[in-house]
Amino acid sequence: MKPGIHPAYGPVVFRDRAANYAFLTRSTMTSDKTIEWEDGNTYPVVDVEVSHVSHPFYTGTARVLDTAGRVERFERRYGRRGAN
């Protein structure tokens, strides 16, 4: 890599506040907040709203929307388009 043009790449802890879960990885993200990790070292911590632990797609709680049923229900309620 060309020196001097890339951001610093180092260990960072990402913490999912909704699921009370944190994981250590490497990233170019930075933070003023720090956390002491399980290995005894202190790392910058980035708080995230959603991770693979709390996202409905990964947890299996995602709902599949029945769009065909919604359209049919709308047409029954308000009539078909152009029926006037």
TrEMBL record:
The keyword Ribosomal protein is assigned to this record: yes
Any single Gene Ontology cellular-component annotation: ribosome
One of the GO BP terms on file: translation
Segments crossing the lipid bilayer: none
Signal peptide location: none
GO molecular function, one term: structural constituent of ribosome
Assembly with partners or alone: Part of the 50S ribosomal subunit.
Family: Belongs to the bacterial ribosomal protein bL31 family. Type B subfamily.
Name of the protein in question: Large ribosomal subunit protein bL31B
Higher taxonomy: Bacteria, Bacillati, Actinomycetota, Actinomycetes, Catenulisporales
Protein's gene: rpmE2
